[in-house]
Specification:
12 helices, 5-stranded mixed beta sheet, Nucleotidyltransferase, domain 5, single chain, nucleic acid binding, two-stranded antiparallel sheet, RNaseH_sf, alpha/beta
Length: about 350
């Protein structure tokens, strides 16, 4: 009854349909009959040509969607979308023109632009040409890291550029076997963490400290800045000596040892790696120990801040027999190839 009613309504509505639409609906129904007659057993298996026909008819006449019986409407829509993707994949295929840039070259461009904040596309393009890469400057600008503001150096770069012209000094108190107090004076350059000077005295004075500064630096190798604490031993004599050598005196804030972190770190290393394991017999004994440790510190001991190199850079040797030399009586060891 329902089917008969649907047929009657379709007959009544047919005069109001366009001729092309009626022909399209008839073609879709006829093609579905052909697919069903071709079925051997089980479900109907439409071919690619069948899918293409139904998709094209759906594209031109969307109303035929309700006439699809051998497939679900969602399946027909899925076929249409898949065909749309295939069409635009074919439409977007490379047709010659400029070749694409390799992934490694794009990564190198991004690395250069990240590591060199002051470099623009022309500078990076010039470096790439010298490295043998044939690439356009516009491509370099395309793959550079985009920055919101003007290029600027970071604090790490700023401090690294000023470290070679900066030194720090401090005093270290050491008790002896007779409970007397000795004072070790150290000066360290911040650039390579090099221990420039170390000496010992039982009675430190401003004149003695000034003389140590003079002996530590030749007049043509004095640093630009000297960091120190506000101990009274750095009196007018020391300040005048620094001024005469062209060194700007930089005392840090009271009760702020972290502002002289390089010297404090050096003193901590001297204690942990040397003095905490040895009983000092006297001034000459302490001076000999510290001179030996200073040589080990500068020439052998590796530093994390220097990429595990020594302040006086060590050459890498890959051939030869390994020889072990004791330092500080065997407290540390030095390994070399001969």
């Amino acid at each position: 009854m329902i089917g008969l009613l649907s047929f009657a309504l379709a007959v009544l509505a047919s005069p109001f349909k366009s001729k092309l639409r009626l022909e399209a609906e008839n073609a879709v129904l006829r093609h579905q009959l052909i697919v069903l007659r071709r079925r051997v057993r089980g479900r109907a298996q439409p071919t690619n040509n069948d899918r293409w026909f139904l998709v094209q008819m759906y594209r031109w006449f969307p109303s035929i969607l309700k006439l699809a019986t051998i497939v679900e409407p969602e399946t027909l829509v899925r076929w249409h979308r898949a065909g749309f993707r295939c069409y635009w994949r074919w439409k977007s295929r490379p047709q010659g023109g400029r070749p694409q840039i390799d992934t490694e070259l794009r990564a190198l461009i991004r690395q250069m632009s990240t590591e060199n904040q002051l470099w623009g596309a022309p500078r990076i393009h010039g470096e790439l040409l010298n490295l043998g890469f044939e690439v356009a400057q516009s491509s370099v600008a395309k793959y550079m890291v985009k920055r919101r503001g003007p290029p600027s150096q970071g604090w790490r770069t700023f401090l690294h550029n000023h470290a070679p012209d900066t030194a720090a000094m401090d005093l270290l108190v050491v008790p002896t076997i007779g409970f007397d107090l000795l004072y070790a004076f150290v000066i360290v350059r911040l650039g390579r963490r090099e221990l420039i000077w170390i000496n010992v005295t039982a009675h430190p004075t401003a004149e003695w400290v000034a003389r140590q500064i003079t002996e530590a630096f030749p007049w043509n190798e004095a640093p630009r800045y000297m960091i120190r604490d506000r101990h009274r031993i750095y009196g007018a004599v020391v300040r005048r000596r620094l001024r005469a050598m062209g060194i700007r005196d930089k005392p840090f804030a009271p009760a702020s040892p972290w502002q002289n972190g390089f010297a404090e770190r050096l003193i901590g290393s001297i204690r942990r790696e040397c003095l905490d394991h040895i009983i000092v017999l006297g001034e000459a004994h302490l001076r000999r120990l510290l001179k030996s440790y200073a040589r080990y510190y500068n020439e052998t001991r590796t530093h994390l801040a220097l990429d595990k190199d020594a302040p006086l850079s060590r050459t890498v040797k890959r051939a030869g027999r390994i020889l072990c030399r004791p330092v500080l009586g065997g407290l540390h060891h030095e390994y070399i190839r001969i």
